[in-house]
Amino acid sequence: MDSIIKFIEENDQIKSLFNIEIIQAEMGNVKTKMVVRENMLNAAKICHGGALFSFADYTFALISNIYGNNALAISANINFANPAYLGDILIATAEELNRTKSTGLYEIKIERETDKKLIAFFTGEVFVKKSQGVKSQGVKY
Amino acid sequence: MDSIIKFIEENDQIKSLFNIEIIQAEMGNVKTKMVVRENMLNAAKICHGGALFSFADYTFALISNIYGNNALAISANINFANPAYLGDILIATAEELNRTKSTGLYEIKIERETDKKLIAFFTGEVFVKKSQGVKSQGVKY
Amino acid sequence: MDSIIKFIEENDQIKSLFNIEIIQAEMGNVKTKMVVRENMLNAAKICHGGALFSFADYTFALISNIYGNNALAISANINFANPAYLGDILIATAEELNRTKSTGLYEIKIERETDKKLIAFFTGEVFVKKSQGVKSQGVKY
Amino acid sequence: MDSIIKFIEENDQIKSLFNIEIIQAEMGNVKTKMVVRENMLNAAKICHGGALFSFADYTFALISNIYGNNALAISANINFANPAYLGDILIATAEELNRTKSTGLYEIKIERETDKKLIAFFTGEVFVKKSQGVKSQGVKY
Q: pTM to 2 decimals?
């Protein structure tokens, strides 16, 4: 399990693009953090939906791949609840809603750390591939 | 109309983060382009859902704000149809499905340029704010 | 508040079409019940997505209109987690995720009563109309 | 192919519940019709989201099962664009956006026949089960 998280942590480029930090990554319990920076603002000076989605999506990748299977995102839905501004510290909390042999369903809540205000609500569905991921050289995905 | 597009083009940070290029931006007809780069890959070496979403979302911002109103994204749904790889040239084509005084509905199709394969399908809804945007110094949004 | 619930209960035809029962309907706390009947089955003999959606949507109407405003559904997303069969007793539990002056976001979980298995997960967004509903003769909506 | 459509037509209960009529059902080209009746109205006297969803979902079942595989709906998203009223004749037009060995993506547009106004826009994703459906007695699904 840890090696998968480590592998994603080291190889997923979105993490460094948005400076996402993993707070917690255990079975069914994943929490991440992102600070809204200048390069995430849209023309209206609020955090871009794409940055919020990327943040949620990265967290979704962590929780859905934690079993060592190869979970492939097939769909996602996001609702933008309240705007986030430059400097806001955002916390994403992932929850597993359902998991079968072939699919998995997850929700990710993005909240502002200071006032716990909901910024965005994301649900994502994965298709679980039969092939148990790349297993060479101790690297699993 | 042009000044809005120009304003978004110059101020939306996501555009430069993902090197998005505007091919066409007219009323009800917006087309953009993005090349899959190293910094958009996830751990499985395919284009990150967050990059695809950001690309669609930026295109969605262009088409939904073209009337000069202040359109605020409230929800979006994305289906990941086929993987995109490093170097793939992606084209996003936006279409307005519905527009009322208070809401707007748009679809964005992301296709690979070479084989027209569908990479992702995005639908987004905006809430149209009454205030007709910032009007100072010829800059509208 | 009660009169709105009563008004919806008596006038929404979907309730009687699917024999939906209101278990609880208080501010931010709505629970409903539906038993899977013959007329809800699809050709594969499992409960039709349309019946599950209708059940969730009705529950969504209850929770989103509870303030006495006129909440208009603008979008909804549903994930079908596990199949429900003839005779299954389903419980829908609604939660308010966000509410602003102009929009509201809700989730509805549909679970089978016996084993608490998730059947479907629904998120819905409403647009809150300024006109505070019909207020004549004690009938509000 | 025809036998599948016939099988769904005869066995899906939602069709008769909402008096849905199949106008056309060919590979990649499915069109259905539903008239808004008294029993589909919500408390605001507009066609219930559940009825619109059921109508779209039934059309989605037709187009996604047309290959003779067993397509299982896993998620759907619907945007309610404009209200439909008692007596409105609604036409649903389905389009296949993507199909792989294991998943399929479809859009269904619901328009009012008289003025071609968009009533709802639906996207649905199926998981394609390996087992090629029930094949006994010429009945396939």
A: 0.90
